[in-house]
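May I ask for whichever protein you like with its backbone structure tokens?
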Amino acid sequence: MSRISPVLDRLDKNLDESLERLFGLLRIKSISTDPSYAADCRKAAEWLVAELKLIGFDASVRDTPGHPMVVAHHVGPAGAPHVLFYGHYDVQPVDPIELWETDPFAPSVKEIAPGHQVITGRGSADDKGQLMTFVEACRAWKQVHGGLPCRITILFEGEEESGSPSLKPFLEANAAELKADFALVCDTGMWDRDTPSICVALRGLVGEEITVKAADRDLHSGLYGGAAANPIRILARILADIHDEDGHVTIPGFYE
């Protein structure tokens, strides 16, 4: 029998307890884009630190200019690889709330088809559900084998849904501590409900501001229309030219 088989059995056996822990995290309204939920974001970070400490991690809340990071370390066997797990505890806003069939922060298990159950609640699929799979896997592995198979570092942020403004500075400032042999991001999906997937790359986002200036006074369209530069037309052309016909970005140096 492989070492993982009894761990999977333990996870199945403890599913109800694992779900209740997940529900505890899902009940926290950690909406990162709304400053009025800043206390909830910190509460989610502190909740995760407490859970990780129960498993035996050296875990702490790390302050940033925005919402805090969660960093946790666990030793592994000598010579074993060092793996970093990344996830985020913040969630999207719930608007439009009238379209929700259930309270977004009152999680439950719902059967949507015979034999097909889903977890309802904001964050259950992005990203609290995914990051808790790592936490519960570590818990079950330790329960079965007494320790973890490798050295593990966990990094959970609270600003992924708002562009991760604090992540890069935090990584740069803590590069030595967070250096690992490889990293796993628990923020992707599956091909379908029965087929896992391994995602090897993700796109980021870029935000820029463009100012287009033309005439410094109103021009009569009957006299100047079509001849004088129209900022709206210029801006439309700029936006259209960002991608070529194959979808590649045409900005010089973009892929460098």
Remarks:
- The mean pLDDT is 94.
- The two ends are 47 Å apart (CA to CA).
